[in-house]
Amino acid sequence: MNAVRIATTVNGVRYERDVEARMLLVDFLREELDLVGTHVGCEHGVCGTCTVLMNGESIRSCITFAVQADGQEITTVESLANGDMHPLQEAFWEQQGLQCGYCTPGMLLRAQEILAANPDPTREQVKEEISSNLCRCTGYAFIIDAVLDAAQRMRTIGGEPAPGADQEPATEVPEVPERVPGGEEARA
Amino acid sequence: MTLTEHPPTRVVSGERKWVGQSIRRLEDPKFLLGKGGYIDDMRVRGMLHAALVRSPHAHARIASIDTTAAKQLPGVFAVVTGADAAELTDPMPDFGPAPDKTTWRCLAVDKVRYVGEGVVAVLAESRYIAEDAADLVEVEYELLEPVVDPEAALRDDAALVHEPLGSNVAYERTFTFGDVERDFADSEVVVKDRLRWHRSGGQPLETVGAIANFDRGTGMLTINTNTLSFTSYLFLLAGTLKVPANKLDVIPHPAGGSFGSKLWAVKVSAIAGMLSKVSGRPVKYLEDRVDNIANCDHHGSDRVYDVELALSREGIMRSMRVRSLDDYGAYIQFGVGHHGNALAQVTGPYRIGSVQYTVTAVMTNKCQQGAYRGFGSEVNNWMLERMVDLAAKELHLDPVEIRRRNFIGKDEFPYYIPTGNVYDSGDYERVLDTALELADLDRWRAEQAKAREEGRYIGIGLVTCAERSVFSATEFWFWFDEPGAPVTSMPESVTLSVDATGGITATLYSCAFWGNSPETMVAQLVAEEFDCEPQDVSVVYAGSRNGLPATGPGGSRTTVMLAGAVEGASGRIKDKALKVAEHLLEAAPDDLEWAGGGVQVKGSPDKRKSLADIAIQTHLFKHSLPEEIESGLEASKVYDHPYTTMPNADRSNLGVFYPFVGHACHIPIIEVDPQTGEVTFLKYIAVHDCGTLVNPRSLAGHITGGTVQGIGTALFEEYVYDEDGNLQTQSYMDYLIPTAMEAPEFVIGHCETPSPWTPHGIKGGGEGGRMMAPAAIAAAIDDALAPLGVRATALPATPARIVEWIESAWAR
Prior knowledge:
By secondary structure, chain A is α+β, with helices and mostly antiparallel strands. Chain A has two domains: 3-79, Roll (Ubiquitin-like (UB roll)); 80-182, [2Fe-2S]-binding domain (DNA polymerase, domain 1, Orthogonal Bundle). Chain A has five helices and six strands; from the N terminus they run ββαβββααααβ. Chain A has helices at residues 25-32, 87-94, 104-117, 123-130, 141-156; strands at residues 3-10, 13-20, 51-54, 57-60, 73-75, 185-187. In chain A, strands 2-1-5-3-4 form a five-stranded mixed beta sheet, with helices on one face. In chain A, a hairpin with a 2-residue loop joins β3 (51-54) and β4 (57-60). Chain A is globular, with a radius of gyration of 18 Å. By secondary structure, chain B is an alpha+beta fold. Chain B has a domain at 28-35 and 491-639: 2-Layer Sandwich (Aldehyde Oxidoreductase, domain 4). Chain B is 26% helix and 24% strand. Chain B has a seven-stranded mixed beta sheet with strand order 3-5-1-12-9-10-11, sandwiched between helices. Chain B has a six-stranded mixed beta sheet with strand order 7-15-14-13-8-30. In chain B, β23 and β24 (598-601) form a beta hairpin. Chains A and B meet through α2, α3, α4, α5 and β6 of A and α1, α12, α17 and β29 of B.
């Protein structure tokens, strides 16, 4: 039925496939390429769970057709870790930037895009920009912490520490009593 | 046990190495790498895909169904109507008051009762084709009068959702706990109000899904799903699917969120199982988002309250009369268990002496209620705190002061509330003081005064709420005089297996990963017992078949119950290890002790055997050990509910059914724009006490996450049905979930008042902030708009509702 030939690069690998014109990009990634790290959330382009990058820009793969990826470069969560975890993944782990993990791939890719545009964002900037993606578990505070922590890690990778990077990281593995997102934590 | 004979008090050791540490979660790496193993990530050779035809009408008779065109579509394997399904399956498991009169099936038969109810299931080689075929099914409906408004549903001339029931009231009863008449007569002040809590729901980003695989050769039905819970009750699902219970195996997958809504979400498994039996092929059925919004069987509470609170002139609360009309929707799968949750802590943290409680459960043409974080007790918290604030206003008392005057004192525990439930322990003053200290209220009161001069409306809310944990299922049946049942044990089980190298595996029997931290928590508890590293403990989830008795997550029970099971299994392993060590060290049992992850001669740490030394002996060299020691080093513990008692015969005392009761104080600071009705958070202080903490940061995650869900409930989220019963909120364009922009900056505080009756003194806290946030935000709105005379009596307090309140206050 209406097969269309597409050639697309996903995580640096070139694929040529015949797909139905109506096949959604998220289904192409999951069902045709077995890249199941990209998840389906609201199926409506609202929640951002299905976020992937197309030529470095975030898109909602649940409302994008696979044919629109023809000739484009797609990046999914599977590209992040290269043996070791990506600093974004390290930071999300360290800051408990996830609970159920379902929104996490979309969050990671959106965070990558945010930090590519602005390597040293303020808390307010991260909050506003990550509001493109819904998380139902964390209440966002830990996610914002994680993005800020990742920014710090990424600024200091492979060379001179970035300005301001000589300070303590925003959040360390919390000892007790601990700090908590966006503020203080006290333990009586 | 008699009603007031509680378990012996445990001595809680303050010296802990791993319990209480905010270690990184062991679950996380696979999710970060995109390898979570969710149900939709699984593919089975030969697997077919299902889609549903859903009802577009709230209430209609099914006149005819034409499946001809759908069946002819290439790639379609089966088209199953509700009538077919009624032959293939028995009704769905139903814990409601009259399952024979409100019969619930996996697909509608004869008539549809809400928009979104499944009418026909289609099975095809791909989901795309299944949905194409679903579009080709032609259903003719004869429209019936929709029953939408729960109060109108009570009228004699209302249409009936279930004709055999004879009315739209599924359950109604008034309970009286203590001498309500006397206490009201003795009170100088009675405040009354009508309060309206509209329905919202968990809305996990991952919907419910199942892959069923019926093996016609063996008769075995295997269902992989993201909803395993109530393992010991799965024989009921086997009954629905007409397979013997010992031929059903339900295998858990991580869930992309639940918040209660995947607790016993068995309809999806029933549909997949039915279609696999029909086709002889593996079948995947995964709800789409519309299914999950409209047809998930897990909408939250939907209550109209009429409440009277009686007090002395000094603000001492004496008694309450509560009438709760609850719009249950089209079916009532859990009965009114949600009100059992309310009755577990109906008087909150206060010394209220008596309560009259009427529950009226109404059937309407809406999706049925299920579970959502709080299970009805969060609604009670909101109702009670709204009334306390009303009393404070009436008596010109400070909201803090009226609460202090009524707190159960820290020396009064265990405290039996009028309904019969017990609160094990608490220190409410300490929680309140901690929150006040963190909140810096004087500064905010000054900011508020300054803002008011500028025409801006800052508000400070404060609530103090109970947080019950670890339910016993008596709350599902004490509503009825008959049939009676013995007290229900609701066990949880763990097997610990020590391999030949001393490595420990913990097997859980009911507990899928739901976004909580069962692996991390169990690993910390095991590491505490065996003095190993948590990351060296392997945690696995068993399927249901031939598993040990298990209940699963719900009612904030997981941590306490698994801690009991880990403790018991660990003790058995240590007992055996000691026996082996006696032989290896040639020492008398009294001379040996468990220390540093092994067994040593007391006072001689050089004479010791590690767990690995002992394990290899038991695995490989049994014949060198005494006769009575068998090979291997493994032990299980089935941990039953540690304290639950029977209700009395006339139900004036419901017994103990939710005994580990935490506490929290929330103080949101907000600004309300009176022109637009928009609420902005300036700060949010939350202090929780749920006993000894296993992983403080994990709990903090439940507090922040639950609070933001509570913000959704308080301000944005509602499943809106119009007057014809059409669901107006069928996507996230209309059902509004808070984003990072709506979430506050938090200050979290922990207090720890150990439970005297649980391992380490742990209480449950998983329902977190959603237990308190709606009440706290309502109080903050009142405070912000106090100059305008607004009282928030309904939620969600959407911008439109807030503007309406302001306008009607002006009109007065």
